[in-house]
Amino acid sequence: MDYNNENSFASQLRPPSQIPTPGKLFEMSAAATNARSTMLPPPNNDRKRKTLAERAGEPSRPTPAPPSSRPVNPHVRATSLAGVARETSFSSSVSSRPSSVASTRNTSGSSYSSSIGPGSRPPTSHSYRPQSAMSYQRFQRPVSSLNRPATSLEAHEEEPGTARNLGKRKVIAWDTDSRLEEVENMCSQFKEKMDGATTESKSLREMMGIYKIRITELEAIRTQLTSSNAALQLELDGTKARLAASSNELDDAKRYQNIRLDDMQRQHRRELEDARHDAESDQRRLIREHTERLTELQRTLESALEDQRNRHQKEIQALSLEGTTTQQEKEKEIEKQLRAYQALEDDLRNCKSDVVKEQDLNNELRAKVSRLTNNIADLETSVQRLEGHIHFLESDNKSQSHAFADLEARMQNALRSAAEANDKLRTEETLRRKLHNQVQELKGNIRVFCRVRPSLEGDAVDTARITYPDDETDSKEVEVMGPEEKSSLGNNTTKKYPFAFDRVFGPRSKNQDVFEEISQLVQSALDGYNVCIFCYGQTGSGKTYTMSASDGMIPLAVNQIYDTAKSLEEKGWKYKMEGSFIEVYNEVLNDLLGKADEFDKKKHEIKHDLQKGKTIITDITTVDLDSSGKVDSILQRASSNRSVASTKANERSSRSHSVFILKLIGENSLTGEKSEGTLNLVDLAGSERLAHSGATGERLKETQSINKSLSCLGDVIAALGQGKEGGHIPYRNSKLTYLLQNSLGGNSKTLMFVMISPLQAHLSETLTSLKFATKVHNTHIGTAKKQTKA
Ligand SMILES: Nc1ncnc2c1ncn2[C@@H]1O[C@H](COP(=O)(O)OP(=O)(O)OP(=O)(O)O)[C@@H](O)[C@H]1O
User: Is 542 in the pocket of ligand 1 (CB under 6 A)?
Assistant: First the structure.
């Protein structure tokens, strides 16, 4: 809860309920108060009234001044005038006869009417009523009542008594007629008064009704106000309670905050203490380390200084030694120079003697010059002889130039014949390709090799009896001893099953030996043919080992292609190699170089260009094989993808076909030739028969799909073997045969490996595989066509 948020608290309070408008309240208090305070006390009927006769005998008393003669507040006057509007006769009688009853009555009536009733009274009448007509009358009553004849009401009550009084007066009357007239006048006046009193009474009753209604209304308002007051009180109590609860909560929150603040402060202090402690220990450690380092540095510096000092001392010693040596040498040199000087002096002496000798010699030389002049003539003769010899040598150089030109011509001839030889070589390469293809055709466009794997360490000891009759010569035959059968005579017999293929590899054969046999087919792919090599056999018979081992057909084929492509470069050929790896599992294509989690989900379509003999698979990863090392990474990626996609119970590689597709696009820049070949290396799923596998559920579905695709492969080969021009080949019956459509049949070269397990337990599957391979071997497929690029 947010105790600081006053708004939230304020919002919880209820808005005050409707309070009656101050106008009404004012109206009630003023009107009600005034109505009650100004209401006339009931007429005192108990007061003993005097009869007319009694009053007639009384001496007349001075009448009080009429209200009009006194200074009256203008509002009071207005009120009286309002009364006049209703009872004009009374007003007039008051003014004309101050002593009459009517005047008094009229005044009180008008005062009364003016003091009550919001409708008939001017609103300001209360505020200007220090002495209302009523109060004036009340104040005057004891005096006026003495000579007042009677109020209209009293007159009414006293009416029966009037006749009696009159009768009494008749007795005492001294002027009967005038008295009678007076009485009649009085009677008529009483009658008038009666009428007026009746009207007044009626209006008073009406007023009473109005006041009753008004009182009821005011009572209702009071009730309403009381109830709203009670509601407000309740609300106020509720709000007070909420306020108290909120303030309690606020106090709690404050307390909690304070506790938390204290905790945090304590923790902060602790952390600060720890940090300070850590910092101090760090500081101490750093100072220690620093001191140690300083000491060490000092030690190092001191030792370096010592070394340097020693070195300098040594140098100084060496220099002083050198100085001493130099000084000695210099001294020696000076001595030597002194000796040389002495020698020079000796020489000078000798020279002087020599000059003498020279002069003698000069004379001798002059004699010689004359002799030499004679000799010059002899030499000129010799020069002439030498010039003749130079002429002779110059003529020999020309003959050498001729010989050089001759050599150059011979070299040009050699280059020409080399170019011719290269041309011839290229022509021969084309011829070789043709002849190579012819040899392959002669060997048959579908060939079958059989390979029997050796017994492995974990294998059962019981091996089948498999022999190789022509092992030493052609290596084309294999004989398998069938299972023991009882003859009709009850003897145990075993049947021998001989098979012959294009080549049989025994258990001792190596992958390299196998590859030598197929390398010519790989060469055909380089030459622009579609080649398909697939391994057929039961699970564990050695298909993957033959195809994808590190020295298997795939790596060896790629290596050979690299080597050959390189050697063909000097003949003008340049090759581009693209590799992709496909899996066919349960009739669904998967990209083994793609993502394992997209297996069986991503759709790949097979599209054929039958005219160009090209196959395209949509959304497949194609790797540029620009170095031979790449093939290893491709095989590893495919293998890891397969193991990710497989489960323990389902060894995916055994239950699916894998196809390594190598596209080889070549172009000869010298001859303009182009070729596009495809090498398909197929590792088929295990071929064990459904009945033998004992599979159920998902495994049964897999086995059915494998059997279907393998039997479709057999059907396609059989249909091709029939060799009917335009005959239907059921490629579309399975994904595998549809994928290999351009690599199976007339436009391609096909090689099938039938892989055999040496175990007796697998004998039945071995015989089935060998029989299937024999059927394929007996099939002759039409001539292969080279794929040339447009
Ligand atoms: N010629 C051989 N020399 C030595 N070992 C071999 C040979 N052929 C197969 N093997 C071994 O035999 C075992 C089974 O071979 P491989 O996995 O190649 O069989 P497979 O037919 O591909 O089986 P699957 O159908 O399950 O893929 C492997 O351990 C493999 O190393």
Answer: yes
Query: Is there an atom of ligand 1 within 6 Å of 109 CB?
Result: no
Q: How far is the CA of 716 from the centre of ligand 1 (A)?
A: 27
DSSP helix, strand, coil percent of the chain (3-state; round to 5): 65, 15, 25
The partner residues of 647 in beta bridges, in order of sequence, read 650
H-assigned helices in 464-510? none
Please enumerate in sequence order all residues whose Cβ is within 8 A of that of 659, keeping only pairs 6 or more positions apart, or say none. Answer: 581, 582, 583, 584, 680, 681, 682, 683, 736, 739, 740
**How many Å is the Cα radius of gyration of the chain?**
75
Q: What is the pTM of this model?
A: 0.49
Kind and range of the H or E run holding 429: helix 176-443
Number of domains composing the chain: 2
Q: Give the domain range for residue 55.
A: 40-151
In a domain, 594, yes or no: yes
**ipTM, 2 dp:** 0.97
pLDDT of res. 103: 38
pLDDT at 266 over 80: yes
Q: Would you say residue 170 lies in a domain? A: no
Three-state secondary structure call for residue 608: strand
pLDDT tens-digit map of 285-324: 888 888 888 888 888 888 888 888 888 888 888 888 888 8
Q: What is the pLDDT of residue 393?
A: 67
Q: Partners of 492 in the beta sheet?
A: 486
- Ligand 1 close to Cβ of residue 757 (< 6 A): no
- Residue 689: predicted pLDDT: 64
How many angstroms does the Cα of residue 754 sit away from the middle of ligand 1? 13
pLDDT at 515: 93
**Is residue 441 within 8 Å of 784, Cβ to Cβ?**
yes
617 assigned to some structural domain: yes
| Whole-angstrom distance, CA of residue 238 vs CA of residue 232 | 9
746 is in an annotated binding site: no
Which domain-ending residue is among 151, 170, 203? Answer: 151
The answer on pLDDT for 151 being more than 50 is no
Distance of alpha carbon 247 from alpha carbon 750, whole angstroms: 96
Domain boundary among 151, 181, 209: 151
Q: What is the CATH number of the domain that holds 705?
A: 3.40.850.10
Closest CA to 688 of 782, 767, 786, 600: 767
Whether residue 117 has pLDDT greater than 80: no
Contact 482, 497 (CB under 8 A): yes
Q: Is residue 283 part of a domain?
A: no
Among 545, 592, 681, name the best residue to mutate to test ligand 1's pocket (greatest count of ligand atoms within 8 A of Cβ). 545
Which helix (H) or strand (E) segment is 91 a member of? helix 88-96
